[in-house]
Design a protein that fits this description.
mainly alpha; elongated
Length: 110
């Protein structure tokens, strides 16, 4: 096993333990827990069995297995960024509504 494979597996295992810890402390909802656990298990599998990404690349018609991993990683990052932006905009809207409500309530007292 190459050093980079060892480092990736060690990192993935560390993140899995952190995810489990956060789930036990109820910082992570079950849906999110399952998503991250699945993702890191896939990372470990792809690291231990690099030929699995080569098989997937042949099915998808992509040159190399590592290219498939990079393409999926970029897509996943954009998807997660989109979800974060939507959630952030929702939070900003809710904060604006709360501040308006408090401002109106405060102005009625005066």
């Amino acid at each position: 096993m190459m050093l980079v494979q060892f480092l990736i597996i060690a990192f993935a295992v560390l993140v899995i333990f952190r995810t489990i810890l956060n789930f036990k402390k109820k910082r992570v909802v079950p849906k999110t827990f399952i998503f991250w656990m699945g993702l890191w298990v896939i990372v470990i599998i792809a690291t231990v069995l690099p030929q699995s990404t080569s098989i997937l690349s042949k099915i998808l018609g992509v040159g190399r297995g590592v290219d498939v991993a990079v393409y999926f990683s970029i897509l996943l990052i954009f998807f997660l960024l989109y979800k974060i932006m939507v959630r952030l905009e929702k939070i900003e809207h809710e904060i604006t509504q709360i501040v308006r409500h408090l401002a109106l309530k405060d102005s009625e007292k005066k």
